[in-house]
């Protein structure tokens, strides 16, 4: 089975430096799991790794599209899977680093974008089952379907059981047969970084201030002057849409900066909520006393437990 190390966590938690150190130690490539770092010219507002950081190890899925080109989780999944295959052929264990939860989850769980949309009537029926008989009844029903298809479900969390039941009721057992013990498509740890909320919010506010100092408004002004449409998908990201309001005369610079901070904090909160759907994450809780070395050593211990046992 192909191997993959995943580093995730909310924005500004400290993923980049840990990812770079692990990649240097393991002679690995880094796959960006960010929905906006793919765009050329959008560097400051996306917190894209610096030129020096990009030079430290090979990076993938950064600066691959012009700002007016569309992108999706399905395309990301396909491209990232191809990169993982190439790395595997070279004997590498790539590192996926990302904050776009759906992108990362779709790759790790091998989400089938070719299937129909979620079956809402089925999900309502399952909601009633859980409400009246509990999650154990949901598990029992899922396991009975798996037994009929002569497969083994390796996960028991509600979110993925709903999806698995949808697939099995359609007779699509194949999507569930190639999995790790955690029910994932790749062998390797999924490492999450967490910080106390107030500390995370302070880091977010500081990051936004540094972005502004580094030229965020000038970056957007240059993109607009070069012909990038304010309605392009690239400009839908936090940091860009608020800055566009400033140039459109809808907000002062101070108001735009305050909105970026607020919307980034809200985004981090949504990310944290999203990760609750991913029970296989192994969390590293970072406190004020922990150094970068401490975080790196904890992550390396997790990696070693997967690949040296």
UniProtKB/TrEMBL annotation:
Q: Which domain of life is it from?
A: Bacteria
Q: Where does substrate bind?
A: 11-16
Binding positions for ATP per the UniProt entry: 9-16
Which GO molecular function annotations are given, in alphabetical order? tRNA dimethylallyltransferase activity
Enzyme class (EC, first level): transferase
Give the keywords, sorted.
ATP-binding, Magnesium, Nucleotide-binding, Transferase, tRNA processing
Listed Pfam families: IPPT
Q: Which reaction is the catalytic activity of this chain?
A: adenosine(37) in tRNA + dimethylallyl diphosphate = N(6)-dimethylallyladenosine(37) in tRNA + diphosphate
Cofactor names from the entry are: Mg(2+)
Marked site positions, Interaction with substrate tRNA: 100, 123
Q: Which EC number(s) are documented for this chain? A: 2.5.1.75
InterPro entries recorded: Dimethylallyltransferase (IPR039657), IPT (IPR018022), P-loop_NTPase (IPR027417)
Assigned protein family = Belongs to the IPP transferase family.
Cite the NCBIfam families for this sequence: miaA (TIGR00174)
Role summary: Catalyzes the transfer of a dimethylallyl group onto the adenine at position 37 in tRNAs that read codons beginning with uridine, leading to the formation of N6-(dimethylallyl)adenosine (i(6)A).
Record text on subunit structure and interactions: Monomer.
Q: What protein am I looking at? A: tRNA dimethylallyltransferase
């Amino acid at each position: 089975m192909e191997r993959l190390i995943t580093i995730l966590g909310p924005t500004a938690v400290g993923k980049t430096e840990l990812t770079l150190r692990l990649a240097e130690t393991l002679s690995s490539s880094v796959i960006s799991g960010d929905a906006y770092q793919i765009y050329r010219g959008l560097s400051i507002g996306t917190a894209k790794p610096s030129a020096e950081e990009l030079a430290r190890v090979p990076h993938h899925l950064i600066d691959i599209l012009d700002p007016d080109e569309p992108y999706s989780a399905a395309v990301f999944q396909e491209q990232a899977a191809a990169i993982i295959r190439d790395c595997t052929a070279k004997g590498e264990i790539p590192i996926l680093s990302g904050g776009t939860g759906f992108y990362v989850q779709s790759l790790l769980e091998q989400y089938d974008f070719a299937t129909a949309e979620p079956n809402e009537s089925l999900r309502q029926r399952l909601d009633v089952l859980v409400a009246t008989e509990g999650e154990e009844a949901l598990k029992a029903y899922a396991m009975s379907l798996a037994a009929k298809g002569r497969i083994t479900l390796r996960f028991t969390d509600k979110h993925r059981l709903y999806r698995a039941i949808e697939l099995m009721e359609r007779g699509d057992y194949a999507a569930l047969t190639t999995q790790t013990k955690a029910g994932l498509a790749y062998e390797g740890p999924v490492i999450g970084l967490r910080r106390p909320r107030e500390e995370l919010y302070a880091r977010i506010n500081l990051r936004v201030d540094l972005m502004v100092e580094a030229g965020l408004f000038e970056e957007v002004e240059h993109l607009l002057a070069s012909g990038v449409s304010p309605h392009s998908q690239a400009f839908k990201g936090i940091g860009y849409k608020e800055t566009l309001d400033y140039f459109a005369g809808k907000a002062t610079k101070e108001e735009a900066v305050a909105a970026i901070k607020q919307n980034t904090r809200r985004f981090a909160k949504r990310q944290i909520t999203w990760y609750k759907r991913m029970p296989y994450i192994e969390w590293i809780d970072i406190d004020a006393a922990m150094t970068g070395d401490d975080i790196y050593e904890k992550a390396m211990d997790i990696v070693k437990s997967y690949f040296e046992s």
